[in-house]
Amino acid sequence: MSTPNTSQPSFPSVAESGLSSAQVQEQVVAGQVNASKDASSRTLGQIVRANVFTLFNGIIFAAMIVVLITGQWKDAVFGIIIIINTGIGVATELKAKRTLDKLSILVASDFFVRRGGQDVRVPHDEIVKGDLLWVRSGDQLPADGTIVQTWGLELDESMLTGESRTIRKTESDLVYSGSTAVSGLALVEVTAVGASSYASKLTAQAKVYKKTHSDLNEGINKILRVMTFVVVPLCVLLIWTQLHTVGGLQEAVASGAWRGAVVSAVAGVVGMIPEGLVLLTSLNFALAAIRLARQNTLVQELESVETLARVDALNLDKTGTITDGGIVYDSIINLGQGPLLPLEQALVDVSHEENPNATGSAILQGLSQIQPSENVPTRIPFSSARKWSAITDNSGNTWYFGAPEVLLASQEGVFPHIEGKVTALADQGYRVLMLARSAGTTCNDQDAVLPERLQPEALITCSEHIREDAQQTLAWFREQGVRCRIISGDNPATVSAIAGQVELTGSSKPRAMDARKLPTDTAELAKALEEIDVLGRVLPEQKKAIVQALHLGGHTVAMTGDGVNDSLALKEADLGIAMGNAAPATKAVAQVVLVDSKFSHLPDVVARGRQVMANMERVSGLFLVKTVYSALISLGVVLSAIPFPYLPRHITYIGALTIGTPAFFLALAPNTRRYKPGFLKRVVAFALPGGIATALVVLTMAWCLPGFMGWNLRNANDLAQLRTVCAIVLFAMGILVLARVAQPLHSWRGILVALFVVAGVIGACIPFVAHFFAIVLPTGRSALATLAGVVYGLAVMGLAVGLLPGCIAKLQHRRD
User: Fold this and answer.
1) Among positive and negative, which fits the CA dihedral 96, 99, 105, 110?
2) In angstroms, rounded to a whole number, what is the distance separating the alpha carbons of residues 79 and 60?
3) Which positions fall inside the P-type ATPase A domain (predicted)?
4) Under 8 Å between Cβ of 602 and 558
5) Beta carbons within 10 angstroms of residue 369's beta carbon
6) What pairs with residue 110 in β-bridges?
7) Which positions ≥6 away from 610 have C-beta within 8 Å?
8) C-alpha closest to that of 321 among 500, 514, 215, 474
9) Comparing C-alpha atoms, which of 122, 101, 2, 85 is closest to residue 44?
10) What 8-state DSSP symbol labels residue 301?
């Protein structure tokens, strides 16, 4: 963006005197000043509250406090999960808040206004409605207005409209804040300031905080909501049952046995909450973001990593995504019968200015084999105001180079065949220019006017430079079933031609449409979009409406962009992707930023999202098995009024070795499976057989062993032996579930399972670990009972896994 021009100017004389000091003060009192209060929608306190006071944290915190009250702090180590998970959530949202707080479309600077007949310099925030504002080359408009007088003002509105060309303004034209003056000068009456200006409205809408939707987090929260209704009454019943097993409330209070009873009840509650899954989800998102950062891809919201896996509609902005904004020379078309070389020489000479524009630079690069003439007698440099340039060569010929409609304006209808060629080439997406000749005349920079008659000699075609990776990347998305559309503010014919060059729709021709003809009704728009591949002349509001219509059609939408005109659509999309060279406002609202602006990173980004989702679905089943068996064991304990068969620290040890730690490794494994809806259904279907089998085996041991072994469960040693046997059997069942999740086992996954078996055994043999987690290796008859329990568990697990999935599938089919 150009730096605003604030040097002391010399302005033309004008009749307008501008506002008086009294009128300015009236506008200030009325609040019509060019300042707006910028703040993100969430404060630090709101972010902390949103992450601390969650259902998950509430359940775990309450359980931890209950255990700490009993004095058994070793059984409360599960509470560390709250601190880690909350810290990750707060840090992530604070980063997003800082990004939003920095969001600004306008560059604050000083400007010159006409007040009381004098031209005075005022800060950006002191401009008032009704001011006469001087706009000069390099200025970014600080407010909206209407042009009063103009001296060749041309504006670059690409940040707002998406069109890559400059717009020449005339008197009474509307101009909008955020536009940049490329050339010329104008006196503008300010009509909207502060929060009412166009740029401020865009900023305000972009700053609205929007939490990225996460199927994974939503599924986990559903589980937590269900467990809340189960946990509270079950916890009360467990406490009552455990007090009853030690002789009732009075006996428990008198003997202090109530502590053990409460801890036992908490063991059931904690087991039902998939606390590690919540933590692993946050960590996996964070690790995926780190991996993408190494590939110059910045993930600004962790949940957006998951969204990557679900995207099935990708809206692409042309400039900055498919093209890099540069101009490329394509060809020169000889309109006469003579040789081509003199025409190419003339074209190089007329383009070889001291500071050639983008088109001139492209021609010089495209015809680099031709050296410019060392001596050009006279030259008229290119001007965007007149749309042409000219040179006179040593042969006395004057060559004019510019827009065909300008060069032939005085000869309209004289060359109909040439006008037809120009139209046909423009419809193919080319930028068409003309090289014309006038013999026996000399161009004069002091009086730069076109002669009455010109002889067209050649048409020159240029086009936007297409990224080398665009075609290959679009082919990848087609293969993956992701529907890509190009949405641009440029001419539909131009955009359609570029779409055809990159094979947006493969071998078929892209279906294009002018966005001005789109229906305004969202439902009608959704239907229309199914038959459209390319849209041109799209306004910022329409980009947002297009995303909303695709949502109505059930699509998960990603949107790329680089201009401020894309910011609202990026905000509305499920996933906003900004290029690294994008406007700051656009990057601020995007969830993903391609730092080096390489479109080819997108397949890697989507693949990483698919890895996260596929692996998290795999390990979610592992965590949910614990939820199922903990709930069933707790219910069995309540119904049979027996002591709880293991302690909270047992479940912490077992969960770490059979679920939490191995799940971390499994979640990072390569996986390119496409995401399919129905995440929660599949996870539940996997977890039920393993959870039911585990609960049945542990309850059977808890019910039967005391009778077989002659244990009195009111005796602390006998109860400790029972809990040791049940804990070991539970560990064995956990390993079986882990082996099922980790399949196939003939790879590193099998080694992983074996390592955790060994780790569990070695840990039980280390005195400190065994003492901390209350693990006692069984001996004698207890060892035999343990072995029998493991064999029994293996048989039950095999039976459950073989039969239950089929029964569950039949029930789901009938319900559907």
Assistant:
1) positive
2) 6
3) 113-206
4) no
5) 7
6) 123
7) 308, 309, 671, 672, 673, 674, 675
8) 474
9) 101
10) S
Q: Which two structure tokens, joined as six digits, stand for 47?
A: 């972010």
Confidence of residue 200 (pLDDT cuts 50, 70, 90): low
Q: What does the block give as tokens for 407?
A: 């060069």
Residue indicated by tokens 């900004």 = 578
Amino acid at 41: S
Distance CA 423, CA 430 (A): 10
Backbone φ and ψ for 620, nearest 5 degrees, come out as -60, -40
Strands 110-115 and 132-136, by their bridges, are antiparallel
Hey, which bits of 250-348 come out as E strands?
297-299, 313-316, 323-334
State the catalytic residues.
Answer: 317
Rounded distance, CA 245 to CA 637, Å?
A: 11
Three-state DSSP state, 69: helix
Average pLDDT, the chain: 81
Give one DSSP letter per residue of 726-788, joined into a string. HHHHHHHHHHHHHHHHT---SSHHHHHHHHHHHHHHHHHHSHHHHHHTT-----HHHHHHHHH
Q: Is 783 helix (H, G, I), strand (E, B) or coil?
A: helix
Helix H, strand E, coil C: the string for 534-589 is EEECCCHHHHHHHHHHHHHCCCCEEEEECCHHHHHHHHHCCEEEEECCCCHHHHHH
Max Cα distance, the chain (Å): 122
Residue 199 CB contacts under 8 Å (≥ 6 apart), including other chains = 105, 106, 160, 176, 177, 178, 564
Contact 317, 464 (CB under 8 A): no
The percent of the chain in helix, strand and coil, each rounded to the nearest 5, is 55, 15, 30
Q: 250 CB contacts (<8 Å, ≥6 apart)?
A: none
Domains along the chain? 1-198 (2.70.150.10), 215-289+607-815 (1.20.1110.10), 297-322+468-597 (3.40.50.1000), 327-465 (3.40.1110.10)
pLDDT higher than threshold 70 for residue 204: no
Question: How many CB atoms within 10 Å of residue 109?
Answer: 14
Q: Is it the case that residue 187 has pLDDT exceeding 90?
A: yes
Two tokens at 631? 């709930």
Q: Is the peptide bond before 510 cis (omega within 30 degrees of 0)?
A: no
Which residues face 315 on adjacent strands? Answer: 485, 559
Query: Which of 727, 568, 562, 721 is CA-nearest to residue 658?
Result: 727
CB count in 10 Å sphere of residue 664 = 16
Task: Judge whether 387 and 403 are in contact, CB under 8 Å.
Answer: yes
Tell me the pTM.
Answer: 0.63
The single residue listed with the structure tokens 């032939």 is: 408
Tokens read off for 424: 């046909």
Using N-to-C axis directions, what is the helix angle for 358-366 and 341-351, rounded to 10°? 140
pLDDT surpasses 80 at 173: yes
Secondary structure element (H or E) that encloses residue 134, with its range: strand 132-136
Instruction: Give residue 263's identity as a one-letter amino acid code.
Output: V
201 DSSP assignment: H
Render 336-354 in DSSP notation, one character per residue: SSS-SHHHHHHHHHHH--S
Dist CA 546 CA 571 (whole Å): 12
Residue 386 to residues 148, 379, 414, Cα–Cα distance (Å) = 21, 15, 21
Poorest-pLDDT segment among 328-337, 387-396, 735-744: 387-396
Q: Is 592 helix (H, G, I), strand (E, B) or coil?
A: strand
**What are 797-816's pLDDT values in tens digits?**
988 887 766 666 666 556 55
Among residues 198, 41, 210, the alpha carbon closest in space to that of 573 is found at: 210
Reported as a single tens digit per residue, the pLDDT across 496-524 is 888 988 999 998 989 999 888 999 899 99
Q: 589: how many CB neighbours lie within 10 A of its CB?
A: 29
Report the Cα 340 to chain-centroid distance in Å: 51
- Evaluate if residue 213 carries a pLDDT over 70: no
Given this model, what pLDDT does residue 100 score? 47
Compute the distance between CA of residue 742 and CA of residue 404 in angstroms, rounded to an integer. 68
